Amino acid sequence: MNVKLRLLSVGVLFFTGQALMAQKKTTVRPKTDTTTKTKEIEEVVIIGGVKLDPAQKVGSYNVVSKASFESTPFSNVDDVLNGRVAGLTFSSASGDPGSSNMVLVRGVSSLIGTPNPLYVIDGVVVGKGADNASLMESWNPLSSIDPNAIESVSVLKDASATALYGSRGANGVIIIKTKRGKYNQKTRLEFSSETGIQDRAFDNLKLMSGDEYIKYGGMLMWNSQGTNGIPVGAFTSLNDAIYNPTYGYLAKYEPEFKNNPTPYTDWEKAVNRSSSVVNTYNFGATGGGENTSFRIGGSYYQNKPLVNTSAFDRISINAAIDHKASEKLKFGLNINYSNVKRNTYFGGRASANPVTSSIMLSPLRPIYNSDGTYNQILGDGASTEGFNPVSILNNIDQISKINTFIGSANVDYQFAKNLYFNSLFGTQAQFMNETIHVLAGHPVYTIMSTIDPPKGFLGDYRTTIFDWNWSNTFSYRKVFAEKHNLETFIGMEYQNHTYNNISSQTYTLNDPRPYFNFADEVFTSNTDQEWTQISYFGRLNYTFDNKYTVTGQLRRDGNSTLGHQKWGNFWSVGGSWNVQNESFIPKIFSSAVLRASYGVLGNIPYADQWYNQYNMYALAGYNSNIGWGPNNGYGFIATAGNKDLKWEESKHFDIGADFGFFNERLKFTLDYYNKITDDAIFEIDTPSETGSPSSYYANAAKINNKGFELVIDATPISKGDFKWNINANAAYNRTVLDKFYYPIDIKTYESDTDDDSNELVALAPGHLLGEYYAIQWAGIAQQDDPAKGIKAGDALFYTDASRTDVTNIRNQAERVWMGKNAFPKYTVGITNDFKYKNWSLSFLITGQFDFYVQNGVRSYTIHYGAFPTRNQITDALYDSWTDAPGMENYSASNPKAVIGNPTGSRLESSRFIYKGDHLRLKELKISYSFGSLFKESVGINNLTVYLRGTNLLTYVFDKNLNFDPESNSNAWSWIGKGRYWYASPVLRTMSLGIQLGF
């Protein structure tokens, strides 16, 4: 068997609109140039046989090649797109593999729901990567997809490119095309493997050591004289031999350590592995005869992330077969299956979150007691008995098993001359089994602390998500008089989406074995939801003389989740001018296309996230556990309902140009867009007098996105054995909330009195979407001001936006618009690829600029004495105001720390907000191909070895930023963007790989 491995291209990672050209098309330049020019073209199939032809490009879209996805150390498809597509912004909720990501294409278009684009895999509409987990902190369903099976990814941006997806394409569409075989190709076998070591990509959160913690305790006691029962003058020196602040601190807050000193505990080291390991194994077999082609492949992805006991294992199998029954009838079948087993842990600000505990726990508290048992009495003021994070990791199992099937079948039939029929049926089925087993003595849920004697917990959550879509399209295609190219399409699509969940929990497990048979009482619940969409669509393409192209699309959608107005009509028109085929074009151009489009798309932002499918109805609820007297239970209105709920309308205007010079060795693509979302759905508060419910959904706002995009492809050197390719993309985007249609002046998301909810963003007409709206930090008082009650070392806040006056009472300061949000205004990505003989070197640098990020837990990582038994970052010791003898610091950035933080200075303000601008060496890869050196001896057609690094270096422009600038707290809403929330850090990977072909 003659089998050949094709060397992975590590060259230009994507080309705008004309990437990875697979077909060939001939165009003739009239009059002045009669030479034939050949262009390789990949046509992007969007729906029902409708294709976007780059030769007559009208819409705005980019294509990312398979070379970017093969043997990648990332668990998610969307992680690979970061930096490779102009106008696409990426952020991650966690470095834990399988966690949800936020992917924005040309900004945020809705106020609720995930802002992610729509994903389509081999014609199957799989949703927007929304998190549908019941137990896991977050789950990215795209983690079920094997990146190694991907042939290409097309990112559709404007109305002309996305209109045929109607109500689900307003945020952009990402089309994933998996690998297939080719006709008349000898069978080829491919194998690749990669092993990598991972650590933190960027994490400057430096915690105090044991010595620093004790020293800080002494400073805190000194600062607290006159408060907390400590008389003024109680201490004369930090080093008094009999009774000093350090002694007093240990006696009051760390008596166990004072009486019986033990070795310090590095909780981060105890909770985390020193490094993470990731392994990938991939194989594939492709081939084809005259009438049938096939591909079958599979992979195993194994990752043991940083947090101990966490793990991610994925087995994937994918297959594709195409058959030509005749010249007029063709069939195709794609099947993708994956099994994911994921071990996770509690997340967010939960006391059981090991990441949280490792930051907050005192280094003076030992992991184990002297008898070798776990020390469960940590007494840190936040963790009660049973919250030792090492014990929790070893005695609590959170295991999720996710089986995902994605399959599509299609048929193309030419039933008459120039008349075609296409039918595609696609389905996605996801079966999630999430379990949690907690041994007795770990009261991770409040109710468990009331049960005596302590008992265990068992939870079992089973979810089935089933989606299917069926599209049928008739088309007429003909070229008249060799100049008039006409294509018309009419079609219909039906989508059905169901969600079924059943859960069981017990808090009274009497046995360490995880079976409900051993429980005293079991609680169960279930939910079943469904929504459908019916669509009718048409498209017309006309090209004259390979110069002028016009296209128009019309789609009528009906969606079951809306009110009385379930149907909407959406459309787009566009045109392009292939200037290159004009006689007057200067010879310096090797290609030149001008294009423009405008369209109105519908959108339902919550359609891809469950529990909002019945918003038009007023739904009743019943609670049997709460009541009065002998009659337990009560009924209530669960949702208000809104029968007038209708489509959001997203209006897209795009103009662009594509130019090539020097026989396409230098290419430019430029785009300007203006995207307006009208009737944006939002949650409207009801008057408090009406009682429950407190809000309902309505069409309430208008949002505006404007931006520019630039892509440059260049080949500066191509001579002999050496070739150098460059691809660079840059984008600008600004998103503004234009208006509210309801009397809403400002919508805030933080609490006025504490930090239970501290999203420092707000919405108001005329402001950036999600603009920061916060009390403004004014620094540290350098001297007493008796008239204002200010003492040296106090935290100061500006009283209002004028910044003319300050106060040390936080509640006397007004919130102020900061003119910045968490969405980068500018993004860049630059890829360089060098090839010399058998050597290849490539690297990708990404950057995001002019945006701010928020530390959602800063009031804990440095709390100014609020929690005297919790650890903090080292700034609490070295950069805090104090007049303690020998530790004097009057020019510090942080205020005087006092036990209990009576002034509330730790609470949210602009101190929580940092400049997020950064540059990142996203990927570096060096490879060597032995070619056919071993063909005769061992039958290997090709052998390639490579060394790859991802997220190798990160440079931030704000020296105070100590968490990853690409963080987000969740991906279900734009509110989570740029907010750090006790997450496992983004990982850096160094890996070694090999590719074989037989």
TrEMBL record:
Cleaved signal peptide residues: 1-21
Domain TonB-dependent receptor-like beta-barrel: 401-843
Keyword Kinase: no
Domain of life assignment: Bacteria
Membrane topology annotation: Multi-pass membrane protein
A cellular component annotation (GO) from this entry: cell outer membrane
Family: Belongs to the TonB-dependent receptor family.
UniProt key word Transmembrane: yes
Name used for this protein in its record: TonB-linked outer membrane protein, SusC/RagA family
Keywords annotated in UniProt: Cell outer membrane, Membrane, Signal, TonB box, Transmembrane, Transmembrane beta strand, Transport
Residue ranges of every copy of the TonB-dependent receptor plug domain listed in the record: 59-173
Compartment(s) of residence: Cell outer membrane
